[in-house]
Write a structure and sequence with these properties.
By secondary structure, this protein is α/β, with parallel strands linked by helices. The chain contains eleven helices and ten strands. β2, α1 and β3 form a beta-alpha-beta unit. The chain binds coenzyme A. The site of coenzyme A (COA) has 16 residues, from α2 and β6.
């Protein structure tokens, strides 16, 4: 398969997906999301694929979030649609896949980038990786399942601190609070990811699929709908326009609470 924004390759039953917009810190624009949706569906239907390793190109970023330049002028309804379609075709599709997805977090995993990593079943981070959900600095909230998945992974108190302060945390801290499973030097990241996936590959595929489905069933789904609606509402605020414009104009934002 040939894509413009991602690299994909199957080696020894592992599908390697690399988000490949290094100059934009692998930010998720519409094309990248569409290509991801396509390759995720391909992974699901292709028997040769037993596991998926997802990473970002370069050493700086896994994914620095959704592409802010694309949604700057969105309305409430467009914001809601962005979250709903993205969640269904990419983020929930990964989480509900019968094949195990592992995120190898090679650098910044911010906003939609951390949400992408959290949709995966397992996370391994490089020591240099930094993670956070900075959406409130833009007048937004996470819209790709982040409020739900972070809460499930680290608990309500830590999730609310990360989301409301918008601060990034180190890989070491992420491991301590259960956000990532392992932290390794950047040079060993892919080896560590392969070591885990090679073990899983040896196990019974239908049992792996059942395990994923059962573990996923442990969470309450209702919150996702609340998040989609609230995410859409943010697009109707002046603060959102100010936050996005400030980012694009490379200046500090001045929020008015309107
Ligand atoms: N959307 C669109 N473009 C982005 C982006 C995003 N989420 N994150 C980074 N980029 C772009 C920058 O605009 C810049 O493009 P340019 O070279 O054309 O100006 C390029 O990627 C490099 O980023 P830059 O900000 O110059 O790198 P930095 O090392 O100074 O800072 C970050 C790195 C990750 C701290 C910073 O890029 C950042 O805060 N990104 C946004 C993170 C975010 O808010 N994500 C949530 C989105 S909902």
């Amino acid at each position: 398969m040939t894509y413009q924004n991602i690299l994909s390759e199957i080696k020894t039953n592992i599908l390697y997906i690399t988000i490949n917009r290094e100059k934009k810190l692998n930010a998720l624009n519409k094309e990248t999301l569409a290509e991801l949706a396509d390759v995720i569906a391909y992974a699901e239907e292709t028997g040769e694929v037993r596991a998926v390793l997802l990473t970002g190109a370069g050493e700086k970023a896994f994914v620095a979030g959704a592409d802010i330049s694309e949604f700057a002028a969105y309305s409430t309804a467009e914001g809601e649609e962005l979250a709903r379609v993205g969640q269904a075709k990419v983020f929930n599709a990964i989480e509900n896949s019968s094949k195990p997805f592992l995120a190898a977090i090679n650098g910044f995993a911010l906003g939609g980038g951390l949400e992408l990593a959290m949709a995966c079943h397992i996370r391994v981070a490089a020591e240099t990786a930094r993670m956070g959900l900075p959406e409130v600095t833009l007048g937004l909230i996470p819209g790709y399942g982040g409020t739900q998945r972070l809460t499930h992974l680290v608990g309500k108190g830590r999730a609310l601190e990360m989301i409301t302060t918008a601060e990034m945390i180190t890989a070491e801290k992420a491991e301590k609070i259960g956000l990532v499973n392992h932290v390794v030097p950047l040079a060993e990241l892919i080896n560590k990811a392969e070591e885990i996936l090679n073990k899983i590959k040896e196990r019974a595929p239908l049992a792996i699929a059942s395990a994923i489905k059962s573990v996923n069933a442990a969470k309450d789904k209702d919150g996702f709908e609340t998040e989609i609606k609230e995410f859409g509402n943010c697009f109707g605020t002046e603060d959102f326009k100010e936050g996005v414009n400030a980012f694009l104009e490379k200046r500090r934002s001045e929020f008015k609470g309107r």
